[in-house]
Amino acid sequence: MSGIGEQAQDALRAVERADLKVTHAVAGVRHEPFVIQAGNASEIGDQAPLVALSASIVAAGLWRRDRKLMRAGARMLAAHLLATAIKTAIKRSIDRTRPDFAMIDGYRMAPGDSEAHELSSMPSGHTAGAVAVAEALAREYDELAVPARLLATSIAIVQVPRCKHYASDVLVGAAIGLAAEAVVSNAIDRIERAA
Q1: Which of 75, 127, 128, 135 could be disulfide-bonded to 176 (CB atoms 3.0-4.6 Å)?
Q2: What is the 3-state secondary structure (H, E, C) of the chain?
Q3: Residue 120 · residue 89 · CB < 8 Å
Q4: Of 93, 110, 111, 91, whose CA–CA distance to 165 is shortest?
Q5: Euclidean distance between CA atoms 122 and 119, whole angstroms
Q6: Could you say which DSSP state residue 95 is in?
């Protein structure tokens, strides 16, 4: 059993080394105007804007009496809330220095319970939320799948050069978003079939 634990720790160390290498390679562009502007635009992937967007779509569906639009908003909101809950649970159990702070104060990753912003790099919440919402929208509106996924991908990718997250934080965030949307979609589909 200890062999499995050692292999997992070796794999984790390899991921950390790769993350640090990528971060150092792109850190020089974090103050470039394009990265700053893209980073500012990526704030649409933060919790409050995604909740507002999702709730607005539910409200628009109700106002228009458009069941599909209302269902899309409900899927988006529920997927985002689940992704946020999972992301928060992980963030509260892992202390990982954000790249922008690690460049100044050094890197750290360990089990922990810090709520300090500078120790909350793992996973990327912007990515988890953006992916969950994009997938929920794509499930209802095939014609919006490509632009929604491209937007979510852009929100995710820019987190690395702006030194807010490591590449693995973004990948874990994307996995959380995909899983949350799948769970929510399955639940909504089951409820609708039962009704």
Answers
A1: 128
A2: CHHHHHHHHHHHHHHHHHHHHHHHHHHHHCCCHHHHHHHHHHHHHCHHHHHHHHHHHHHHHHHHCCHHHHHHHHHHHHHHHHHHHHHHHHHCCEEECCHHHHHHHCCCEEECCCCCHHHECCCCHHHHHHHHHHHHHHHHCHHHHHHHHHHHHHHHHHCCCCCCCCHHHHHHHHHHHHHHHHHHHHHHHHHHHHC
A3: no
A4: 91
A5: 8
A6: E
Taking only the tens place, the pLDDT of each residue in 155-190 is 999 999 999 999 999 999 999 999 999 999 999 999
Contacts of 6 (CB under 8 A, 6+ apart): none
Place of tokens 């804007």: 49
Find where tokens 């200890």 sit. Answer: 2
Rounded CA-CA distance 42/36 in Å is: 10
11-27 pLDDT per residue, tens: 888 999 999 999 999 99
Determine contact, residues 107/121, Cβ cutoff 8 Å. no
Strand 94-96 with 109-111, pairing: antiparallel
